[in-house]
Amino acid sequence: MTDRLPTTGSTSAGPAGDPTRLRVRALRWEADDVLAVTLDHPGGSPLPPWRPGAHVDLHLDDRSDADAVVRSYSLCGRPGLAEWTVAVRLDPASRGGSRHVHERLRVGQSITVTGPRQLFGLDPAPAYLFVAGGIGITPLLPMIEEVVAAGRPWRLLYAGRSLAAMPFRDRLAGHPDRVQVFPAQEGARLDLTAAVPAALAGLAGEALVYCCGPERMLTDVAALVPPDRLRCERFRPRPVVPDADTPDATGDFEVELGEGGPVLPVPAATPLLDVLLAAGRDVPWSCREGTCGSCETGVLAGVPEHRDSVLTPAEQAAGDVLFPCVSRALTPRLTLDL
Length: 338
Known about the structure:
By secondary structure, the protein is an alpha/beta fold. Helix content is 17%, strand content 29%. It comes from Nakamurella flava.
């Protein structure tokens, strides 16, 4: 057992990698309405390595236009295996992603997958508190297992609708002294205001807090933990609150494709990503909500107006990358590294 955790660097999105065709090797129910999908290479070739917090994009149809069904999911298996596993909860309001996985994916089927890429890396720390809401346990599972292997102190607060709806409890069963489970329908609702300070008090040093779950959970945890010690991942884009002290970023602007490259108009009602794709630029994308990080693009000049839920405030202030699916401009022109 080692007492060192590898350094992950920035938690912002990295290169998404080339699309590849993988095989659905197994489908398994992990909880009510939660289906685990295990993928491998049909020829037995090894898959690219990944670290806890990594994501892959599943291309759930054969389209390549703006209506293609591409969804990003956390890898929740064990790094080093010749397979990748994601878990998908069926969303009653599904726009085609989770419903496709649950109703149409079958063992033996081929599917295009892009990745892995790192969005939510595990940074070195003396101790860790993990806070999960429902399917939010998926990116935290590999982190917990890496922390266990490193011999670091940790705790998990895991909330869900019911025990039957909370996936991967079997992988946590060996740590009853470190895991607190809160199934609301069984009368064990998680009180974050009490539980987070209590858990942190039992951890030595400046513990990092990793949280993944619904927006209300993330908001409540953010009110209890200093920003420099909190790492969050969202299911939905966080609300964008306009800043009264900055120019209006909802109108028209221009985008320059590389220094000295073509200059294109970006109308007020048109996403920047659509303009880039129409110009033939090969920008990967998935969620179109600023949450998955697939379309990260470098900024060479101009000031972007960030509307993503990926970058930290410090990374947004640096202004050297944006996510064109949601970002706009605070200056008349942006020059992008394309």
